[in-house]
Design a protein that fits this description.
2 domains; tRNA (guanine(37)-N1)-methyltransferase activity; Trp Operon Repressor, Chain A; about 30% helix; about 20% strand; elongated; cytoplasm; Alpha/beta knot; alpha/beta
């Protein structure tokens, strides 16, 4: 996979040289190219922003440097088979679609991603109109909060996507039981995990995990996932399809005070759900 990032703070992307992403780059699994937007600003101050039309606080990033930068990046595509790869352009913004594990899996299958982290009040809207009219452009948000710029979301999204690429994780199965991952635990948060020693500061590892009984261990992990999801993300449980829950799941949820509603989906009894 190739990843291009256009930014006014190339140094912010230095973490992409370390840990799993850095190792993937060193092994040639990931080609990351960081471009300084100010290289396409032609006045002596390398200006990339101006006041907003219509008034209001803050500054808006100008379309001219972004247009020249993206044209330059897009003019040098990676080669896939007999033709040039098509890019997915990703605009990090708090007003975008939520970035999820499902989207990370989808984007991990793309050969080329181009990120456009903004600063100030964002990028002139005509840039999204221009490139969205002819490319797969996604405006994505990593959460319901506002940051000083889009570089931190780029780091989050690149790491989430890169760890799904073949050969990046040491154990190819490592991500299969992640929170939000498709599979047996789909829709649930991952439960607590433990390692040696068996006792630490008077706290022991749950006995079931050292029992060697794989069926009991799998059930315990499932129950702990249900408990953690009910506590931290009840919205995920409320959306869980009834057919995804087996008899033991339902018993665990009943112990936690959850009941099925008329449509079969579970909700907290305290919220008025009835048998």
């Amino acid at each position: 996979m190739r990843i291009d990032v256009v930014t006014i703070f190339p140094e912010y992307l230095e973490p992409l040289n370390v840990s799993l992403v850095g190792k993937a780059r060193a092994r040639g699994r990931l080609d990351v190219r960081v471009h300084d937007l100010r290289g396409w600003a032609h006045d002596r101050h390398h200006t990339v922003d101006d006041t907003p039309y219509g008034g209001g606080p803050g500054m808006v990033m100008k379309p001219e440097p972004w247009g020249e930068a993206l044209d330059a990046v897009l003019s040098d595509p990676p080669r896939e088979g007999e033709g040039a790869a098509e890019p997915v352009v990703i605009v990090p913004t708090p007003s975008g679609r939520p970035f999820t594990q499902e989207l990370a899996v989808e984007l991990a299958a793309a050969p080329w991603l181009v990120f456009t982290p903004a600063r100030y009040e964002g990028i002139d809207g005509r840039v999204m109109e221009e490139y969205g009219a002819r490319l797969d452009l996604r405006e994505l948000s990593i959460g319901d909060y506002v940051l000083a710029g889009g570089e931190a979301p780029v780091l989050v999204m690149v790491e989430a996507i890169a760890r799904l690429l073949p050969g990046v994780l040491g154990n190819a199965d490592s991500h299969r039981d992640d929170s939000f991952a498709p599979g047996a635990m789909a829709g649930l948060l991952e439960g607590p995990v433990y390692t040696k020693p068996p006792e630490w500061r008077g706290r022991e590892v749950p006995e079931v995990l050292i029992s060697g009984h794989h069926g009991r261990i799998a059930r315990w992990r499932r129950d702990e996932a249900l408990r953690r999801t009910a506590l931290n993300r009840p919205d995920l449980l409320a959306r869980c399809a009834p057919e995804a829950l087996d008899r033991e799941d339902r018993a665990t949820l009943a112990e936690l005070g959850w009941r099925p509603g008329p449509d079969g989906r579970f909700g907290r009894a305290s919220d008025g759900m009835e048998e």
